[in-house]
Write a structure and sequence with these properties.
CATH topology of the largest domain: Rossmann fold
CATH superfamily of the largest domain: Response regulator
Largest sheet: 7 strands, mixed
């Protein structure tokens, strides 16, 4: 039987323990992920959803056991350093950077907060990591293998437009990996007997003048190198090529989805999904220095038949059979 004295003592103990339990619950730290985007929320949405889906599969629920801080440069690379500093000041637990420029901005802002890059064209050459196997420092992530597939992209363009002897190449000299992509393009062009002329553009405000310069050269085709600038303005780029009847090769499916003729490259959504695994490992104590850079193993060829028809091109059955997706 419980005595009155025992009952009162129990209440007193419960009252004393309640604040400590509340304090313990408040002390549980919810990790915060800083998301540094080179583009805008709207154009990044499908890939951001893939990243969030990857985290949910690992048990993370926003608002319960994980929080996000988003910063977007809206396609203006010059804004990335200040946005990276903002995330560092917020003391996030890990920064997920959508591109090489974003990752470089984050690394320049902190050498202690872990950084995961999602789409690095040349992580070693751009100085993000010491090596693919052992990144070192506070940065790791996923590579696009962009330099290694440039030759394949140009070959597919030449196969689509066999008479294309002069090709305009759209590049961004401001990018850390630009020189490597240019070298790879020149090597591939020589092997294919194609003459290439590079047109560099460093920002969105230079696109129109660059497009005019390309038009004046009257090339037979357009080859767009990988860069966040062109990805953000992919619809604008594809519309320019189609309006000027320029068959074009683009680096990712998203270009073909907005009207571009064809694209060959890695699946960006898959990269974002896999980036969630890196964030999870780091939040559980892994060091970026010990997490090897992942390289894509799956590449996809997307052909837009509607664009081909508008350009007056006939895509061979052999090429269509090799396509991973044909947009009608």
């Amino acid at each position: 039987m419980t005595t009155r004295r025992g009952f009162v003592s129990g209440l007193a103990l419960a009252a004393l323990s309640a604040p400590s339990r509340a304090r313990a619950q408040q002390a549980v730290k919810v990790p915060r992920v800083g998301f540094l985007g080179s583009g805008s929320p709207a154009e990044t949405e499908p890939r951001l959803e893939a990243f969030q889906h990857g985290l949910r599969a690992l048990g993370y629920v926003e608002g319960q056991n994980i929080a996000f801080e988003y910063r977007w440069s809206e396609g203006t690379i010059e804004r990335l350093p200040d946005l990276a500093v903002e995330l560092v000041r917020l003391k996030v637990d890990v920064i997920v950077a959508t591109s090489s420029p974003a990752a470089l901005a984050a690394r320049n802002a902190t050498r202690t907060i872990p950084i995961v890059f999602v789409t690095a064209a040349d992580p070693v050459g751009s100085g993000l990591v010491a090596s693919v196997a052992r990144p070192g420092g506070n940065v790791t992530g996923l590579s696009l293998l962009a330099p290694e597939i440039v030759g394949r992209q140009l070959q597919l363009l030449k196969e689509t437009v066999p008479k294309a002897s002069r090709v305009a190449v759209l590049s961004n000299p401001a990018s850390s990996y630009s020189a490597l992509l240019v070298t790879e393009t020149e090597t591939a062009a020589r092997s294919l007997g194609v003459r290439v002329k590079f047109f560099g553009v460093r920002g969105a405000d230079g696109l129109d003048s660059t497009f005019s310069a390309i038009t004046n050269e009257r090339p037979a085709a357009l080859f767009v190198l990988f860069d966040p600038l062109f990805f953000v303005h992919r619809r604008r780029t594809a519309e320019f090529a189609n309006k000027n009847r320029l068959p074009a090769m683009y680096p990712h499916r998203e270009f073909a989805e907005v009207g571009g003729l064809m694209a060959y490259g890695s699946d960006l959504r898959d990269n974002f999904r896999r980036a969630a695994t890196y964030a999870d490992k780091i939040l559980k104590g892994a060091r970026p220095a010990d997490l090897p850079v992942e390289q894509p193993t799956k590449f996809e060829l997307i052909i837009n038949l509607k664009a081909a028809k508008a350009l007056g091109l006939t895509i061979t059955p052999a090429l269509l059979q090799r396509a991973d997706e044909v947009i009608q």
